[in-house]
Amino acid sequence: MKATRNGKMSTIHVDIVLVEQRARELGFRHATIRELGDGIRLAESLMNSKIATADAVMRMDVVTGMTAWVTGNPIEGVFLVLPLSPAGEQAVRDGTYCPADPAPAHLAWHGRDVAGVYIGVYAGATKEARRAVMTAAAVMRVEQFAAVPTFARGATDDGKRSMASLGFSPLEGGLPDLWVQEALSTGSEAA
After folding, report:
1. What is the pTM of this model?
2. Do the Cβ atoms of 46 and 123 come closer than 8 Å?
3. pLDDT tens-place string over residues 139-177
4. What is the CB neighbour count within 10 angstroms for residue 61?
5. CA-to-CA separations, 99 to 95, 112, 152, 189, in angstroms, rounded
6. What residue ranges in 33-115 does DSSP mark as E strands?
7. CB-count burial class (<10 Å; 0-12, 13-18, 19+) for 157
């Protein structure tokens, strides 16, 4: 990871090959469209609410190169991560970001100029899958995205508890139920 300082905002460059390698080590694989559909149905059943369509998530993945991850066969866990551009990071904070179908300008292109991360969902159907999802969330946060803030919505009480256990706190003024973990290091420390 390389980090650069742009005025008040840090952006980082994330190596997608390293993300893919680390995800595999943690038991995840980049989802195919079929796997993604299964993962979204799983997440929606666990959350008892609708999220994004598989087609929308695949459009996000085309832009970011690293959005859609699943584990298990059949699918037991799903992890959707959206690297944000500087405009996207601001949109999350001011409430204009659309989680189910973000503007392409709000997403960081293939690991370049990442100003923040939005976690679309992390969910597991089994104890092992939940452990894998939590481990992947923590490891990727520290190893790949420490120099930028990470956002997620507290859709369920379990989700809020897990975010609190990872060091997130509620953030007022943005999207409803928005939680944030501000940068763990500054751009100069991460470089």
Report:
1. 0.88
2. yes
3. 999 999 999 999 988 877 877 887 788 788 999 887 778
4. 21
5. 10, 20, 10, 30
6. 68-71, 77-84
7. exposed
